[in-house]
Each structure stands twice: as structure tokens, then as C-alpha cells.
Amino acid sequence: KQSQLLEIKDTLREMQNALKSLSNRIEQAEERTPELEDKAFQ
Question: Closest Cα to residue 15, out of 3, 26, 25, 7?
Fold first, then answer.
């Protein structure tokens, strides 16, 4: 039972890290979007 809990904790930690990474990528894309729009209209 203890090992199952540890596995679940590890899985949740991995998911949390993946979500943080995804969130960071989305933020970077949002920051870059205005730059790309500026270049497109020049």
C-alpha cells in the first residue's frame, strides 16, 4: 500500500512538472505572437 502511494505521488509530481512546462511554453508563445504580428504587417 505504501509503495502505491509513493507511485501516485511520483505520477502527480510528473504531471505537475509537465503542466508547468506546458504553461511556460504557452506564455512564451503569447509573448512572441505580437512580434510575429508586427513582422507580418511590415
Answer: 7
